[in-house]
Amino acid sequence: MNAPRTCRSVMPSFRAQAIAFGASLVACFFLTGPRHAWANQTEAAATSPDGRNSIALRVDAGLKFEIRRDGRRLFDPAPLGPVLAGGDMLNNSSRIVDVQSENLDETFPLVWGKTATVENRCAVAVVTVESREEFRWQVELRAYDDGVAFRYRILSHGGATDVTVCDEATQFAVAGNPTALFTGFDKFTSSHEGLYESRPVAELPEDKLLEMPLLLDWADGPAAAITEAGVRDFAGMMLQRDDARPAVLRCRLSPLPKRPEAAVIGPLPLASPWRVVLLADEAGQLLESNLLLCLNDPPSAELGDFAWLKPGKTSFHWWYGAFEDDFQSTAEPGAFLARHKRYIDFCAAHDIAYHGVSGDGRAWYPQSSASYGVPSADADVRIARPEMHLPEIIDYARGRGVGIRLWVHWKPLSEHLDEAFANYQRWGVTGLMVDFLNRDDQPMNAWTEQMLASAARHHLNIQIHGSPKPTGLQRTFPNLVNREGVKNLEYLKWGNEVTPAHNVNVAYTRALAGPIDYHHGGFRSVSRAEFVPHDRAPTVLGTRCHHLALYVVYENPLPMVADDPSAYEGQPGFDFLEEVPTTWDETRFACGEPGEYVVVARRRGDAWYLAGITNWTPRELDVPLTFLGPGEFEAKLYVDGSLDEAEPNAIELTRRQCHARAPLPVTLAPGGGFVGVLRPE
Predict the structure, then answer these.
(1) Exposed, middle or buried: residue 579 (CB in 10 Å: 0-12, 13-18, 19+)?
(2) What is the mean pLDDT of the chain?
């Protein structure tokens, strides 16, 4: 997409500099206001347009940064920058030799998102630093109304043409002792799927790698979330508590798979991703931020305009387990094809855009391995197993106006990427779930971009499972429709850990980073006392209204309708699932508290979709409706039909008049939720 962006002026020298740094920079700066430069200064700063957020850089026994909101220091001075081969840290013996300050002001449209357009407004300070004679580097600071960000660029390293980055010297020195909501892992290679804990920041575990976004919530003030953006041909990052200083979080880069002593190898100049701190008065307001998108490049003109891309809901038969016995030859002849036709008919009848095909208990492509997760060397993703009837499935779906999406393991896909994608486009496949990446090191991140670019050329939408956190890359590649990177409803097939409380925690952590694939749509809720994990025909914890609400609470342009068609048709609440959009014009946080509950409002056209979920605590809420603006509205509400946990599928449908001047009272059952559609009268 290359629509014109609103701007007032362009600074040619800075734009030329950005082009010189290549794809690692945000393309085409549009900067306004006076330009300032200072030489041999000891500090530099950027302050947000509203004056509330600031990030400052100063020389003080090395180069250090600090972050403030409303004048209050939330992050104490701490070092930043890379650790190079040989242990060199560029912030030692540093001096500031130049500062360029500007204001960035642009508006850009989105192909899809939680808003239709994004205002990219911030103060920028580009600080040139010398560390001894052989090192010259820059730190770029940005201050937005919803957070701050910084990155470094290594310009020269003596006469070297490339550089090896071993790790980060960057630290976040948290001021005070806010409560942290976090998940931790033992190693960099993982599915990034875990439970969340809440602890004072000084009590975070020392022996865990901490996933981002990591939420910090001060009892007497604001909230912050630490994460990263614009990870382009670089290693991903996690956090780790410092051994000696409990409130200090050290940045840790994912090491190279074959060189664990190093993380990034690249030519000079080399730019890091953005280190980001989202900021707001309360944690839920962080859900409104588009800051990660602002810190990524727009789509390349070479990829086209993405007019072919169609967000929408998708089935995914694997979650229900309807086909897992077919490869064992226990099904009747023709049953496999008939089952897929039944799903496709269901999708066509209920405006579900896509049907997902994974296999019949093993992958749809030939391989000697019977495991989805462990492909064998003979796996060939360029062809389909004949017994899968894939041509018939695709032809039948095309005739019914339903797109077919295929599941595929990333490893065999990487061996035949362009040829496989050309085949899929020729067959009529519309998208893929690419699974089991489980890494965010530099080679994997580079391959992911290669895969997304090839998919865009072949008009394929992509969702990634076994995925690291989102970093805003969907702005550059809008065909990246969502990522997993979270413990989600698939785990109810095997255990009881994905509870309503966990769903609430996800809203304040993983969901802050971007679109989230969660295996939506479980329509057979049971109480805690009745719950038993089932790999086939799984049940879910939390009320049916709770699970309807997830379609609004979480951003996702390609949400699953993951249960069997028989679980939906004729059931209360399914009409809302049919109606709810998957992309939005506006997103607003209504109310909530981390670990307890959350209520989110999203607008499509003139209709507001309002939804909330709670943990196991029942609640009576007065939901503020100030986001509505003037006028009278009619609210169609789906609320929990019983406060008895033994009746989680009960729904009460009501209609009420409402307006922005008064809150909306709603009662939530244990593990409950509600959804509403508010339209002007």
Answers:
(1) middle
(2) 92
